[in-house]
User: Fold this.
Amino acid sequence: MVWLIATFVLIILVAALWLFVSHQWQLKNRAFLMREAVRNEDFMFRLPLKGMFFGERALQEALNDMGNDIGRLSAKQEVESWQKLTRVLTHEIMNATAPITSICQAYLNNPNIKGSAYEEGIRAISDTSRSLTTFVESYRKLTQLQEPQPTPVSLSAFLNSFTPLYPQLRWNIVLPNEKTLNIDEGMFRQILINLTKNAIEAGATFMDIRWKGCLMVSNNGEPIPADVARDIFIPFFTTKPTGSGIGLSLSRQMLVAQGYDLKLATVPIIGCHVTFMLIIS
Assistant:
């Protein structure tokens, strides 16, 4: 009898020890995953809470939320840095081109220049200067965003009015019932226009919009190469001959201005080549 009790106790102790060691290995793996996520600047990580004690669960929830907060702060600082740089560059370029345009115009108004061999060259300089000024003015929108006016937006109703604008595309919409976003509707519309326009220019014929913890906007256009993906949100960066390089950057700034973010998914959803994630909570 004593032997049976001792054996039973030993089995319980071994099982408890195995559970304890197994649980510690799980915690170690979680720590490794979080460290790798931070190292790779992936602040969207959310590790599951299943199988954790209440204290560990609370700690994991805090770490998950902290990752999201760090991601938002990092995105905000990055956008603000680009805005400051853009503001400085546009200011300096405008200061440089203004006197060139003025001097050229003065020469072109001079009777001694009109009809001379110099007129064509001066006019070319003047036209180039004016074109550069127009070019710079178009980029000032990156630093002059209006203040967002968030309102509750029914996602289904919004998309029902948006998708008919692009009848050349097939749409697949998968959303929770009555999903509502607190967002500036005008900015949200412009963001989706930019994403859709980019998809069409990349040869997309199909768009997929679904909610999986964030709004995922996907298309079956040409995949974005890895060496390009890391730069797509940099202002003025473009791989298109006639591209402006502000669509994605401006879209991200519109979201960041509201405390959200825009990211390119590392792995697109099945059936698509590109997936953008609108981190809206």
Remarks:
- The two ends are 61 Å apart (CA to CA).
- Strands lie at 151-154, 170-174, 180-183, 206-211, 215-219, 261-264, 274-279.
- The mean pLDDT is 80.
- The longest strand covers residues 206-211.
